[in-house]
Recover the amino acids of this structure.
């Protein structure tokens, strides 16, 4: 392990301690960013993933970073080295991808930014591990084999840690978090697009509180 990857791993471990539930957020309007982040933080969820899926994403992330210091903002849907640079320029604390090309892995390996590459297969996991990334995003989690798949991967890859995302909801979140190789889970059930459009901030806070209580139970 190089000093760069060791420093990056330590930063990521510190960040993930604020989890283990990471709301996956898609914002259509910048005006919704700060009230949404405040609603989630009020409900006990500080670790956020702002996806680069809309034209409003980057400005939304910047607004949250500036105005909601309690939130720990990560940039998701990082697809290219350029996206990784954008995430770092915005001041994000970490970045995530749904998959990982060799070019993206190379760029992330040379960066100080904590990065969670996406994998869905053993071969993709091996590629991430070769580049020094032991914590990966298992995506799409349910469609890629679900909990049995992560149990199977634990055998040949005991060093790997996972943040499964995709198909996880309030009903099965705790089941995923019982796996010893799962360090966090990602999901959009606490901040659904319909609730954001309706500006249902109190409902989102209540969902966040329920999510936190369910994993503590």
């Amino acid at each position: 392990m190089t000093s760069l990857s060791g420093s990056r791993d330590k930063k990521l471990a510190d960040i993930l301690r604020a989890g283990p539930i990471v709301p996956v957020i898609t914002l259509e309007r910048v005006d919704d960013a700060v009230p949404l982040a405040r609603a989630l933080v009020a409900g006990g969820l500080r670790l956020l993933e702002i996806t680069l899926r809309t034209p409003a994403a980057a400005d939304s992330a910047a607004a949250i970073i500036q105005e909601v210091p309690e939130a720990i903002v990560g940039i998701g849907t990082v697809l290219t080295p350029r996206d990784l640079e954008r995430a770092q320029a915005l001041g994000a604390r970490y970045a995530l991808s749904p998959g990982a090309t060799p070019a993206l892995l190379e760029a992330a390996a040379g960066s100080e930014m904590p990065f969670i590459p996406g994998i869905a297969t053993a071969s993709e996991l091996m590629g991430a591990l070769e580049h020094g990334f032991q914590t990966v995003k298992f995506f799409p989690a349910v469609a890629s084999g679900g909990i049995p798949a992560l149990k199977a991967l634990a055998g040949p890859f005991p060093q790997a840690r996972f943040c499964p995302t995709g198909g996880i909801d309030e009903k099965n979140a705790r089941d995923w978090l019982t796996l010893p190789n799962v360090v966090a889970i990602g999901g959009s059930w606490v901040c659904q697009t319909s609730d954001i459009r309706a500006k249902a901030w109190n409902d989102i806070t209540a969902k966040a509180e329920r999510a936190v209580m369910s994993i503590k139970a």
In short: Residues 201-216 form the longest helix (16 residues). The chain has one domain: 3-216. Residues 28 and 55 are 7 Å apart (CA to CA).
